[in-house]
Amino acid sequence: MRRLFLMVAAFAMSALGADVAGTWKATAEGPNGSMERTFVFKVSGDKLTGETTSSMLGKSEIADGKVEGDAVSFTITAKFGDNEMKISYKGKVTGNEIALTSQVSGGEGGQSFTWKGKKVQ
Known about the structure:
Blueprint: H1 2-16, E1 22-30, E2 33-44, E3 47-54, E4 58-61, E5 63-68, E6 71-80, E7 83-94, E8 97-104, E9 112-119
Antiparallel strand pairs: 1-2, 1-9, 2-3, 3-4, 3-5, 5-6, 6-7, 7-8, 8-9
């Protein structure tokens, strides 16, 4: 009986998912070198909201965000000059580290970047 309780407790803990809420700093390699981005995530149930900031694209609101266990997904609409572009992110949180892949919609088939980051608060 005790063993069953421990298994149920372990499953319940894993079902709660990763601790995504907070501030994360991430980097990715782009065509012109390293890019930096800060993510501020807020979580309510399985809904992910917040904002993200980069020196190149400025501040963007997180939309369509979801948390499922240790997996996260969301989109942002960023401005680059006079153009708006939608960027989709998908990734996984492991402890205080996050790995994300971003996909820029439209254009020349879209660009994809791999982001690696750490939680800072």
